Recover the amino acids of this structure.
């Protein structure tokens, strides 16, 4: 049965112990995953976007796939499907979490063979895994190197190769976690489901962002989902109300979503000490929905369904 993408609800999940993507896997803690992923269910979630890491594969080899299998089992026990992110290109300037750099692409051959053992390893083992709802090939391509035309060209070839590899091994749909506007347009031909990352800073801005990106989706004849949203604030209730307006606007336009960020932790935007610039006020990108003690962040209770 084909999934109705408008019904997708959930969060991006970074385990609280990991400040960087590699350590989510090299320091994998199943008890933390079981506890924290269960918190998503109080909000009616059916999907979590979880981030794999090429760097973790370089460090761990095939052991990465063993702990990824445990992560999928954890989500499954909590009644959740996974949206694994294979690569990341977004780099926070203050708290870099691990990413494929411009230099990683620049020093790769045009065939991008150095990424093949990782991609093929994931897909050969999990390509038919029904615990996975959707493959996300890369978080925020063009997240670096905005004016480096040679890198953007090489990045597109790289993503085309990754998409082809996924389709060789898997019938599960794929997306790319693109940002907005031209960034979405450039990758739309590669995916089955178009996704965008709206972070409006003011009330009312989400409406136009939805309308504009639905137009892109119609032009390509593909469904649209939102795989990151809800910018931050140090004011719990201000952030909660802004997030409410964002998510209700997505709901009204029948756009499925996974919000940022499930729980408090060491990852950037997961604590008041490690914030980013996606915020209602300068450098207040504090975005968790659940605090480290497992309670819902004040001002965010409106999303609870039980």
């Amino acid at each position: 049965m084909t999934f109705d993408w408008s019904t997708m609800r959930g969060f991006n999940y970074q385990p609280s112990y990991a400040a960087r993507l590699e350590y989510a896997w090299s320091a994998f803690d199943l008890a933390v995953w079981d506890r924290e992923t269960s918190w998503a269910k109080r909000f009616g979630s059916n999907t979590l976007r979880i981030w794999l890491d090429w760097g973790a594969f370089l460090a761990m080899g095939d052991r990465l796939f063993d702990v990824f299998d445990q992560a999928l089992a954890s989500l499954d026990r909590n009644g959740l499907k996974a949206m694994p992110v294979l690569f990341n290109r977004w780099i926070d300037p203050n708290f870099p979490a691990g990413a494929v750099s411009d230099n990683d692409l620049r020093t790769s051959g045009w065939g991008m063979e150095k990424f093949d053992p990782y991609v093929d390893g994931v897909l050969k083992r999990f390509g038919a895994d029904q615990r996975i709802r959707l493959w996300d090939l890369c978080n925020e391509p063009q997240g670096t190197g905005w004016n480096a035309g040679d890198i953007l060209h090489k990045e597109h070839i790289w993503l085309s190769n990754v998409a082809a590899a996924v389709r060789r091994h898997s019938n599960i749909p794929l997306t790319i976690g693109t940002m907005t506007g031209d960034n979405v347009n450039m990758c739309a031909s590669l995916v089955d489901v178009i996704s965008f990352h709206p972070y409006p800073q003011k009330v009312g801005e989400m409406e136009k962002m939805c309308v504009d990106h639905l137009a892109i989706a119609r032009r390509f004849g593909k469904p649209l989902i939102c795989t990151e949203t809800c910018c931050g604030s140090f004011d719990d209730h201000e952030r909660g109300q802004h997030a409410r307006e964002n998510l209700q606007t997505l709901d009204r336009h029948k756009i499925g979503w996974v919000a940022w960020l499930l729980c408090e932790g060491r990852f950037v935007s997961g604590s008041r000490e490690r914030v980013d610039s996606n915020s209602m006020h300068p450098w207040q990108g504090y975005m968790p929905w659940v605090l480290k003690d497992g309670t819902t962040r004040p001002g965010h209770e409106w999303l609870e369904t039980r």
Notes: The beta strands are 9-13, 47-51, 81-88, 135-139, 174-177, 194-196, 224-226, 256-259. The radius of gyration is 18 Å. The first helix runs from residue 21 to 26. The domain at 5-303 is CATH 3.20.20.80 (TIM Barrel).
